[in-house]
Amino acid sequence: xxxxxxxxxxxxxxxxxxxxxxxxxxxxxxxxxxxxxxxxxxxxxxxxxxxxxxxxxxxxxxxxxxxxxxxxxxxxxxxxxxxxxxxxxxxxxxxxxxxxxxxxxxxxxxxxxx
Length: 114
Known about the structure:
The longest helix has 27 residues, at about 20-50. The protein is built from 4 helices and 2 strands. A two-stranded antiparallel sheet has the order 1-2. With about 110 residues, it is mainly alpha-helical.
């Protein structure tokens, strides 16, 4: 329902929002959430089918559970994902619209509504 309301809002304001490229911004943020969720599902499945197995540390004094290993993989993958996302977010959210020398690109939403 919220996504439907967002689509209705976009359809009603697409001419005003066009200079701000809201679609690429929306999909960029959704892609981060989508990838994080599905990699968690994949790691849980790999844990379930015993691809990820428990182990012990190098001194054989502590057992590292499959949940801890999965969480470690998840954390590592999120770090890699955030590196890629940071580079792509520079495209989705360019600094040029905030540059003092470009007055046409600095129009705000309230300026366009008037």
